[in-house]
């Protein structure tokens, strides 16, 4: 059996990457690290190892809680193994030095003779440079693939802003105040990080310069769960059996209703993204076209 390829999953918060990770983790020919998001490349490029470690430690703590509550030896052994694997990854990220050989070794650790794909699904990779994408594409002897998921810009941005607002409101601030503050950050440009995550055009420009066309698959979130999409993605990844997964997005959440004024504000901010995607792709999901025209319920 040939050595498995590496798959890098790229997107943005609330754009289907958790669903993709769950589907891959359940597939017999895919292997994944113990974290959904390793943050290896972004922590190096953006000097954000401390933030990345906080994310990884949070996940590890959850597993430790499960371990303390485990009722059978089989479950305890499985969780203990997972904690040890997490510690290996945290050692890599926490070292804050480029060590691609170690990264490759960790990616391969959970592979077996049937594995076709070792996947690292980290949405923050959407903010990486062309140089880093080239480096990633050359790993594993060049046996790499990239998948980027695009979600309707207004829907994705509002979903993420609503999630952020609800989290901050739990710390004691009125929800409306937090939402208005976040929306002002979009209109006045102060929330540059969120706008960067929404910048599909820039990410794809860097990716297409660094990654051969045959190694890059761009998917629409709105079509992610359709039979044709799953068959196409499975062929791209070399799977014998078609990828399946939950019938709905992961971590969808109820979210807040978006009023007409907010929709107009976000649609105006995201217009360059609509223009780019419409010009690049022959067809886009109806949701995108409807959201460009006005509020969609």
TrEMBL record:
Keyword GTP-binding (UniProt): no
Pfam families documented for this protein: Sulfotransfer_3 (PF13469)
InterPro entries: NST/OST, P-loop_NTPase
Single GO MF descriptor: sulfotransferase activity
Signal sequence coordinates: none
Record's keyword terms, sorted: Transferase
Keyword Metal-binding among record annotations: no
Alphabetical list of PANTHER family matching this protein: BIFUNCTIONAL HEPARAN SULFATE N-DEACETYLASE_N-SULFOTRANSFERASE, HEPARAN SULFATE SULFOTRANSFERASE
Protein name: Sulfotransferase domain-containing protein
Originating organism: Ascidiaceihabitans donghaensis
UniProt lineage: Bacteria, Pseudomonadati, Pseudomonadota, Alphaproteobacteria, Rhodobacterales
